[in-house]
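Our preliminary data section would be incomplete without showing what the modeling component actually yields. Below, a chain of 273 amino acids is followed by its predicted structure, encoded as C-alpha cells that our downstream tools consume directly.
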Amino acid sequence: MPLSTHDIEAVDQLLREAARAEIMPRFRNLSDREVRQKSSAMDLVTDADEAAERMIARGLRQIFPRAVLIGEEATERDPTLLNKLADADLAFLIDPVDGTKNFASGLPLFGVMVAAVMRGEVVAGWIHDPVGNDTAVAVRGEGAWIERPGNRRVDLRIAAPAPIHGMAGCASLHHMPLPLRSNVAANLAGFGAVACYRCAAHEYRMAAAGHCHFLVYSKLMPWDHAAGWLLHREAGGYSARFDGSSYQPTLREGGIICAPDAESWKIIREMLF
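Predicted structure:
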C-alpha cells in the first residue's frame, strides 16, 4: 500500500480537527450571509464548506507536499483542477461538507469526504461524521472499517443479497433527464424501501455497514463518490456504472449502482430500467 498506516491515521485526525474547528461551531449557527447558492437552491455553499476545505487542504499539503489537491469549492472557482486527476502520482479529492443542504437546514446528516487517488486509481477513502465523531476508512486491498472514539475499530460488511421485495436502498434521481427519471422513479416502487438522505457520505456508510442493500446515483462528481465507492467495495460490495462498465473517479456521468454482488446488481438494474 503506497500510503502508510501513519498516513491513514494522519488524514483521519485532520478531518476530525477540521470538523471540530470549522464545521461544528457553525452547525445551526449560520446567518443568511453565510449560506449561498451555487447552481440552484439545492446546491449550496456555506462558510463552513469553504473554511473546512482550506484547513483540510493546508493539512494535506503539510503531510503530502507533492500531492495534487482537488477540492469541491476550489474546483467551483477553477474547473481545470479536475484535469489533473487522471495523471497525478497522488491526488486528494476533498468534499468538506457533503450534504450541505442538510447542514444549512440544521439536519445532522452531513459528512466530510476525502479520497486518495494514484494515477486515476482510488487507493484510500475517508468519510468522517462530525456529529458522531467517527470516521469510516477504506484502504484498497485492506478492507473497510469505522474508527470510533476511544480507538474502537469496527469492521464494515455489506448486507447479504435479498429478493427485490426485501431490498432497501437509497436513490438520488434529480440529475437524471426526463423521461428516464420518471420511469426509474416508478420502477423503484418494486423494491422493499427506498429513500434519499441528500448525503452520499451517510448513504455510502449505511451501505458499507449493511444497513441497506443498494445505492443509485446518476451524477458522478469524484469528491461525492470516490471515497464511498472504495468503502463499499472494500466492505465486500459490487458496483458498476449503468452500462455495466467499471467506476472510475475521472468519469462524471453514466451513473452508478452499488449492490451486494454482481447478480444483485443485474437484478437491480433490470428492475430500474
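Residues 21 and 52 are 8 Å apart (CA to CA). The domain at 5-155 is CATH 3.30.540.10 (Fructose-1,6-Bisphosphatase; Chain A, domain 1). Preliminary results of this kind motivate Aim 1 of the renewal.
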